[in-house]
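Hi support team,

I'm filing this because I wasn't sure whether my run with iron/sulfur cluster finished correctly. The job status page said complete, but I'd like someone to confirm that the output block is well-formed before I use it downstream. Pasting the exact inputs I used:
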Amino acid sequence: MTKLENFTTIEEMEAVTAKLREQAIFVHAETYEDRVKKQTPHCKFGEDGICCKNCSMGPCRISAKASKGICGADAHAIAARNYLRTIAAGTASHSDHAREILHVLHSTSRDGNYQVRDEQKLLRLAKEYGVATDGRDIYDVAHEVADVGLMEFGKPFGTQRFIKRAPAERQKVWKEQDIEPRAIDREIATAMHMTHMGNTAMPEALIRQGLRAGLSNGWGGSMLGTEITDILFGTPTVWTTEGNLGVLEKDYVNLVVHGHDPAFSEMVVTAAELKEMTDYAKTKGAKGINIVGLCCTANEIAMRHGVRMAGNFLQQENVVLTGVVEMMCVDVQCIFPALPSLTDCFHTKFVTSSPIARIPGSIYIEFKPETAMAQAKEIVKMAVDNYQNRDQTKVYIPDTKQKATVGYPCEQIVKHLDTITNSHVDELGSYRPAVDAIKAGVLRGAVGIVGCNNPRVRPDFSHLEIMKELLKNDVLIVATGCAAQLATKAGLLQKEAKWVCGDGLRRVCDLLDIPPILHMGACVDISRILLLVSGIANDWGVNTTQLPIVGCAPEWMSEKAVSIANYVVASGIDVYLGIEPQIKGSTEMMEWVTEGTRKIVGAGYIINTDPDGLVKSILEGIEKKRDALGI
Ligand code: BF8
Ligand code: SF4
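And here is everything the job wrote out:
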């Protein structure tokens, strides 16, 4: 039985966006849809990755009349160099975010702005790092762990410490293939150096560095980001919350936090929840303060506080267009520079907080660990003071929202599995019940659906189509980032979503009392998926390349996504992409990413821009892996 009536369809989401576009016209604002029109058709050279501007003899473009740039670089060299630079930028973004978090850990003290919330996780990491803990103050331990973590970025010798967490087979492959990730900054610098004018022109070498730089993100920067965030703000637990634009409230001060760095959003959430702030809001005629999240920040604070989620990447302008947002405050990544001119059409204040993301037209409050709480209060107060400026003629809150159960890091997944078997084998538990369910065919496999939404395709459509089809076919989904947000908007993160699943998956959901899509967090938390897959491979006694588990980014757009795709592939997991990487102008590069990497790490991309075709190939890929395992 399939009861779809309780879910939100893409058509319903699009109807809301269309209403909000009327609102945009009313206030004389433009949105990304207007800009897409002006940018289409896109530059073909850029799309195909065969424009090079790595030196001032260029830019050089490869065409029928010119098969080489002025220096002699051909389409393959140029596309490969551009691709590696993309990976370097993505690796830098995730990892620099992690570095900031490590500095916050370094600033913690018992009476300071930031404390250690998950001491057990800190002690486990200290042990892994060889940091002494006996008889020491927890904050001394925290500071030394932060020191060791920070050294992962620039240490002159050795490889990333967390690669020891990977299955032995993976570690062996990385060593043999000479792609073990060294210091994170080194992998980024090497990528930039290799792609400088007059250096590497050989696609294979650039592909290998791409895998290595990706690994320094997945098993380095991102994993550090996740671990340290858990230590600082607590390892996520299961929460029931809500998502989509209907979480904005008419009679409350609406404060939207957007971006990625939880050090910022956690503090703003804490300040907004203070009684003195709520009382202050009441003096201004509001019923209270309604804080909601956008993009990855939404994921971070939903799974640690149950804070409601306003939406994903392409919803950032829609949120402002409701006319009820007193303030949007942002930290880093995925923030449209278009926002200040849009917020100018309303009373909405737009606050930037990081030197990494300076945007003209914003109010800039540089957020610092030493003054974080005072600054967060200042920000919240500014939002409250703005409530009275709301223009009632410009208000439209769509009534669309869905329930969502969020917060399934590995620890929670193991805990749920443990409820059925009591198989608790060590402090981190076991994935054996999940392995048994896959072996028995109750679950056919699992897919990590991650990444952004993208106006190159019908936004959110591929995500939803692929998710529904996989669930119907008894494939469990884990989701992060904006993919998880789409699942939220559609209603697929609620436990009732079992009604769109096949019988096997529905039984698993009932037994474990989980939704069929497990929300694992923000994009840095794809590191959690790496540990999940490694844990399953270890408990099963097979290699990651053999598992009927794959990754899928149906609508990816960011450089971070390309870095992620590389570490997922390097970890032995196939990646299904619904958007083509910008390398199409090189047949060699297309061959490298789809087939060539299989010879290096045993996995690669499968690319299909048609969602039906993509999900079909995922299901076929899963069945092929099952056949090979004889299950
Ligand atoms: O890191 S999924 S649009 S918000 S890049 Fe950005 Fe893409 Fe969303 Fe988070 Ni991830
Ligand atoms: Fe042209 Fe070569 Fe310079 Fe690139 S590096 S811009 S291909 S001359």
